[in-house]
Amino acid sequence: MKIVVTGTRGIPNIMGGVETHCEELFPRMVRRGFDVTVIRRKSYVRDCLTEWNGVKLVDVESPKKKSFEAIIHTFRAINEAKRLGADVLHIHAIGPALLVPYAKILGLKVVFTHHGPDYDRDKWGKAAKMMLKMGERLGCMFADDVIVISDVIRNLIKEKYGRTKRVHLIYNGVSQPEVCDYPEFFEELGIEKGKYILGMCRFVPEKNLHHLISAYAQIKNEETTFGASQLRVKNDSGIKLVLAGDTDFEDDYSRKLKEEARKNGVVLTGFIKGRKLHSLLTNCRCYCLPSSHEGLPIALLEAMSYGVKVIVSDIPANLEVGLDKEDYFPTGDVDVLAQKLKAVIDRPLESVKYDMKKYDWEKIADQVKAVYSRNG
Question: What predicted TM-score, i.e. pTM, was given to this entire model?
């Protein structure tokens, strides 16, 4: 069966949750006997690959402009899928889903994965939000099968569109952790094992990294008063904040975030993968995700797979993961976030055992295989 995939910027080693999802899933689908082609956005590609881990790669031109690139790329990708004779077109995310009816007109079977209500993201203006909502509606109404990555999303499309048939709850997954050290990298960053808080995501407003920087600044600048002289001494735990990630589109928010980070002594790594990222996950004191919007955050699942303490916002997607109550803080409350982080810093370094069974990529690939097979 020939599967053509669109809605992702591409694979491998391209930043983003959907990109990580596709990078993990589709080589596994190849190993299950499917002929898989991923249509990539040429402006994001820095390699000359035509195949990776058995997945065929086709690069299609699209403008690198956040308001237009997804829809133009998806239109061209659907035409390419028709030319390639796809048995199933797998569209990821609600923006590209705007063109599900067009794919159906061309006679294609369509599987649509809903990764989250992107219209809740702060970066979009009123017109873009309206188009994203329309994409969600058209994807849910016209796709042959809909995959949702969380129960929150399944309930959302049931309530909004009444869609319950051929809707499949298939979680995001996480690979086995690659526990490692990278002393040279740590020396380059100026950090020590167990003495840093890790934030790992794209530099966009809804990730609320500015709240994490503010909370860290509170901890860093906290003072204690001693004796009758009222001598005030700044506390110094030696804990640093490391932000691993970057932005696709440099804008006022990302520039200001980086400026605030440098001003407060935050370590910026840029976009990293492989051994560098694995070493940061292996050795961090805790991982923090203060988002106001998520689908089901793969970055959080990755941190959990390494057994690190996590502190996350209490949005529905994070609550669905089912962490202990103390691991959550009220979204946007910098003071409480600072208190939670301070508590982690003050306690001995701990390893946490999380139940990760339902986030197993092999199980997830088997579930996607069943969805494809019913369209054969």
Answer: 0.86
Tell me the pLDDT of the chain averaged across its residues: 91
Share of the chain above pLDDT 70, in %: 94
Helix (H, G, I), strand (E, B) or coil at 283: helix
- Helices within the chain (DSSP H only): 17-31, 69-84, 100-105, 126-142, 151-161, 183-189, 209-221, 252-263, 274-283, 298-305, 316-319, 334-346, 361-373
> Closest by alpha carbon to 5, among 363, 23, 132?
23
C-alpha pair distances (Å), 80 with each of 10, 144, 212, 239, 268: 15, 19, 43, 51, 39
- Closest C-alpha among 18, 3, 165 to residue 94: 18
Give Dmax over CA atoms of the chain in angstroms.
82
Contact 111, 168 (CB under 8 A): no
State the DSSP code for 358.
G
- The alpha-carbon radius of gyration of the chain (Å, integer) is 22
How many other CB atoms are found less than 10 A from the CB of residue 271?
16
Q: Quick check: 102 pLDDT over 80?
A: yes
Residue 37's alpha-carbon distances to 104, 206, 227, 373, in angstroms, are: 19, 31, 69, 17
Structure tokens at 14: 């391209």
Relative to beta strand 223-226, strand 231-234 is antiparallel
Given a cut of 50, is residue 242 above it in pLDDT? yes
The token duo for 345 is 């810093």
Task: Please say whether the beta carbons of 111 and 34 come within 8 A.
Answer: no
Output the six-digit token pair for 17: 């949750």
Q: In what order do the strands lie in the sheet with 55-60?
A: 51-52, 55-60, 35-41, 2-6, 88-92, 109-114, 145-148, 167-169
